[in-house]
């Protein structure tokens, strides 16, 4: 059973930074696709960033140049460094994972965490 546990959310002012973490259990972490998604109140879920087993990363257009996804295999942890935060980044952020070589933000993910809240004040 794969479990994903997010942490690091909180409230910051616009222009600030936060780093989200996602601790993963199970074999998927070392070989699979890991990703971050977010969902703001009343909005559809949005793909934020994804990273595959070879550490190739892709980003949603709204976060390019501001967010960085990374993984630490030794700690079984996925990160999302978020800089230059904007009010519109306010959302619940979810960690997700899937098996297989494909690692695109529109892929169907196999596993989801419960989320961590990010609140940006303007």
Question: Can you describe what's shown?
Answer:
It is a single chain. The chain is 3% helix and 48% strand. It contains 1 helix and 11 strands, in the order E-E-E-H-E-E-E-E-E-E-E-E. The chain has one helix at residues 28-31; strands spanning 4-7, 10-13, 18-24, 33-39, 46-51, 57-59, 67-72, 77-82, 91-98, 111-112, 116-121. The strands form 2 sheets. Strands 2, 4, 5, 6, 9, 10 and 11 form a 7-stranded mixed beta sheet that branches. The protein has a 4-stranded antiparallel beta sheet with strand order 1-3-8-7, with no helix packed on it. The longest helix has 4 residues, at 28-31. The model has no long low-confidence stretch (mean pLDDT 94).
Q: Assess the beta-strand content as a share of residues.
A: over 45%
Number of strands: 11
Compute the separation of the termini in Å.
40 Å
User: Rounded to an integer, what's the Rg over CA atoms?
Assistant: 13 Å
Low-confidence stretches: none
Main beta-sheet annotation: 7 strands, mixed
Helix-residue proportion: under 10%
Helix-and-strand structural type: mainly beta
Task: Please write the string of helix (H) and strand (E) elements.
Answer: EEEHEEEEEEEE
Question: Can you give the mean pLDDT?
Answer: 94
Morphology: globular
Q: What's the number of helices?
A: 1
Q: Please state the oligomeric state of the protein chains shown.
A: single chain
In a few lines, what is going on in this structure?
With 122 residues, this protein is mainly beta. The protein is built from 1 helix and 11 strands.
């Amino acid at each position: 059973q794969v479990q994903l546990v997010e942490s690091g959310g909180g409230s910051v002012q616009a222009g600030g930074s936060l780093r989200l973490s996602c601790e993963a259990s199970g074999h998927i972490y070392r070989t699979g696709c890991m990703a971050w998604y977010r969902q703001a109140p009343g909005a559809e879920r949005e793909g934020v960033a994804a990273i595959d087993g070879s550490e190739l990363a892709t980003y949603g257009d709204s976060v390019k140049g501001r967010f960085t996804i990374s993984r630490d295999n030794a700690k079984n942890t996925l990160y999302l460094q978020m800089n230059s935060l904007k009010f519109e980044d306010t959302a619940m952020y979810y960690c997700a994972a899937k098996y297989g070589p494909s690692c695109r933000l529109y892929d169907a993910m196999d596993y989801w965490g419960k989320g961590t809240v990010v609140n940006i004040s303007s």
